[in-house]
């Protein structure tokens, strides 16, 4: 997943329909950490079905999006009508804060129970894998990354910055084979924290690292563009997480917000999501990329979210 900083023009506003106007003009505002190409395609599809709607998208990495939402909460109120995020743990925080609306959108009932709640619904599946560099014997299991041959040569994304890496922290901490101790083992072996999954891919391709943890999407796209890396699919399974969407209590146009959620869950939008390289949440849309996947009960993990981040920071700082 390509994650960009909110600096100057690095984050743009995508306007569909009419030009952006005042806060009371009925503009549907979507805050998201989803990749730009996917957001663009889905919003364009929505616009073709709802041409009178004006949609404004604010896109940023999970950590920076969280900071903006918090700042708006302190400064007069959240401006977003819809949140479309990368990982369930981040969305669960907003649910606990009471800023999400309970709805029953069409299409939601078709989702597996593990990918939906009363207030948010999965839209796509993300998988975390390992990558290795040109000429490097690839790791087979996650624990291989702590082996002597990878000492000081492994990179992984910051869970405080990237939602997908936050989910990885949750997965490892809740898995008896690994636990939070896995991160201590990585630290003891000289592993390097970078900001985003894309930076892992770049670092491995440039030879600064021999291996790393990243999104399969990022690695696959890089390989398609000629990057000298290989995907090392963990023998115990790539870690899968789901990307949720929700309507906020701040929305002054619930009908438009709910229509957007319903559209994202529709077959048309799911096919658009698949066409931009992400595994669709709908089993009706074909997807044959990858291999074995593993996951956990994200709702059970939520109450430990801050403790996990604190434990992680005690190891890697920040």
Question: What fold name stands as the CATH topology of the largest domain?
Answer: D-Maltodextrin-Binding Protein, domain 2
Question: CATH H-level name of the largest domain... which superfamily?
Answer: Periplasmic binding protein-like II
**How many H/I helical runs?**
11
The number of E-state strands comes to 12
Round the Cα radius of gyration to an integer and report it.
Answer: 19 Å
Give the SSE map.
Blueprint (H helix, E strand, L loop, with lengths): L12 E4 L11 E5 L3 H14 L5 E5 L2 H13 L7 E3 L3 H9 L24 E13 L20 E4 L5 H12 L6 H8 L3 E3 L2 H9 L5 E5 H9 L4 E4 L5 E10 L6 H11 L2 H9 L3 E2 L12 E2 L3 H4 L3 H12 L2
Helix pairs in contact: 1-9, 4-11
What does this structure look like?
The chain is α/β, with parallel strands linked by helices and 318 residues long. It folds into two domains: 8-124 and 242-288, D-Maltodextrin-Binding Protein, domain 2 (3-Layer(aba) Sandwich), CATH 3.40.190.10; 126-239 and 299-316, Periplasmic binding protein-like II (D-Maltodextrin-Binding Protein, domain 2), CATH 3.40.190.10. Helices cover 35% and strands 19% of the residues. The chain has eleven helices and twelve strands. The protein has helices spanning 36-49, 62-74, 88-96, 163-174, 181-188, 197-205, 216-224, 254-264, 267-275, 298-301, 305-316; strands at 13-16, 28-32, 55-59, 82-84, 121-133, 154-157, 192-194, 211-215, 229-232, 238-247, 279-280, 293-294. Strands 1, 2, 3, 4, 5, 6, 7, 8, 9, 10, 11 and 12 form a twelve-stranded mixed beta sheet that branches. Helix 1 links the parallel strand 2 and strand 3 (55-59). Helix 1 (36-49) packs antiparallel against helix 9 and helix 4 (163-174) packs across helix 11. The two termini are 22 Å apart.
